[in-house]
Amino acid sequence: MKKIKAKPVVVSVGIEQGLSYDVLIERNLFSSLSDLLSEYAPSHRYAIISDNNVGELYGLTIRDQLRRDGFNVDLFIFQQGEENKTRETWCDLTDQMLVESFGRDSCVLALGGGVAGDLGGFVAATYMRGIPVVQIPTSLVAMIDASIGGKTGVDVSAGKNLVGCFHPPNLVVVDPEVVCTLPVDECKQGLIEAVKHGIIMDRTYFEDLSVAIPALLARDVDKIQDAVLRSIELKAIVVSEDEHERGKREILNFGHTFGHAIEAAQDYSLSHGTAVGHGMLLETLLGIELGLTNPETFDPIKKCLGCLGISFQGSLAIDPDKIMNYLRLDKKSKSGERRFVFISEIGSVLRREGDWSHTVDEKTLTHFLKSL
Ligand code: GLY
């Protein structure tokens, strides 16, 4: 770790050629941004990329604070919402930076939730063939998932995140206290991802989270900090081993094969976290049906996700034909086959013949979905 005045917890994420970047976690860390940028991402100019909500909440303050400290910084705002994570928004942002004469010696500060992280990261990855990005996540999902691992991109009409690239950040700055200002529903979305980390990698963490959910939803900042830290540690382990998702990183897709299909089948009226929550329930059941997952895993998972608003009745109510149609479009499919991550037990993902995800044929899937 480099020298800064604040004393954050540091989690290191490995990337290719033995390099790594740091994720710094500490309350009130945004107030140390000037020091952090000087140390980790010294640049001639900075472009804060943020949506209209977060831009107003944090972007203006951060811009003004950095300007007072002598930084050359501008704030670029896009309209909030996943529906704006598009090539058009990417085009607007890069055009604005070109008009403002940002050069190759600039750096993007991607400030906000997952959309700002993906979009800001993609702008950085492509602007003048690539400039550095610092991820400054302000939602719980972005802190523990989207800001770590270097995935960037936009959604297109054929599906989410289908145009993008890997562009690891120079630094990720996490202030867990920000979670206390989020609406409770947004907090639930992040906790669903945290529960996923426990289910796939750490049974004790899953059990701790299951007990702590009321305190976490009441925004107990110590408990939030603990969860943020553990989830970041777990995600860092996975992406350090497999940055480009050629193997182990696939385990993070637990719940996502059904989850993405459910999101699409419901015309994106469900949030991503909720869809993945339903996806985790269905993928646990599918694993049990196929004899791959211990049946005793289902009740604790159902109970824990139930506390986060994922009702099993809700999972059952989703039209199986629509789910099947969208599964056919899944970008994780190989040779047209649907691929799933299965747990064997809570805390362990099933690995068979070196593969972390497994194909399930259409007949078996149709039968499973109709039998629910
Ligand atoms: N959100 C899954 C991943 O980063 O691979």
Ligand set: glycine
Number of strands: 13
| Rg over C-alpha atoms, rounded to the nearest angstrom | 20 Å
Quaternary organization: single chain
Note the overall shape.
globular
The name of the CATH architecture of the largest domain is Up-down Bundle
Beta-strand content estimate = 15-25%
Largest sheet composition: 7 strands, mixed
Q: State the end-to-end CA separation.
A: 51 Å
Q: Could you list the spans in which at least 5 consecutive residues all have pLDDT below 50?
A: none
Structural category is alpha/beta
CATH homologous superfamily assignment of the largest domain = Dehydroquinate synthase-like - alpha domain
The helicity comes to 40-55%
Domain tally: 2
For this structure, the CATH topology of the largest domain is Dehydroquinate synthase-like, alpha domain
Order of helices and strands: EEHEHEHEHEHEEEHHHHHHHHEEEEH
Please count the helical segments. Answer: 14
Q: Look at the structure and give the CATH class of the largest domain.
A: Mainly Alpha
**Largest beta sheet: what is the strand line-up?**
1-2-9-6-5-3-4
Average pLDDT number: 94
